[in-house]
Amino acid sequence: MCTFLMAVSKVPQPRRGGMLxxxxxxxxxxxxxxxxxxxxxxxxxxxxxxxQATVAGLRAMTLAADYVEAVRLAENTLFxxxxxxxxxxxxxxxxxxxDNNFSYRLEAQRVSGDVGSGDLNEVELEVRWRAGRSEKxxxxxxxxxADSQ
Length: 149
Prior knowledge:
Elements: H1 2-7, H2 21-84, E1 86-87, E2 91-96, E3 103-115, E4 118-131, E5 134-146
Parallel strand pairs: 1-5
Antiparallel strand pairs: 2-3, 3-4, 4-5
């Protein structure tokens, strides 16, 4: 009779918390899979935001470089007129700069009134270029004495 009782297998008893050790391991493996998926999602969102910020920074850098180039070209175009200090009016000149996608429009108009010995001319230079789908422009204005001829 005693041997019969010994041969009976033990029924697993639940531990504290109500789960068996095997169930805890299976639950823990599933929990690790969920943690890994959450980490992958967080990393992918973070990397996407970093890539978008980098692309936006590169676009801003390119646009800033275009504006610097446009101002440089405008100054180089206006410099001969500023050196003379005088200009004829009215006149309009439109042209493209060599070796790039920049163009300009130079216009001089007589302004009424007198300043000392002569009239003033308003000189406006507009530099235009295409940046992506839109057209950008920089405009510079100055006043020069009217040429007496």
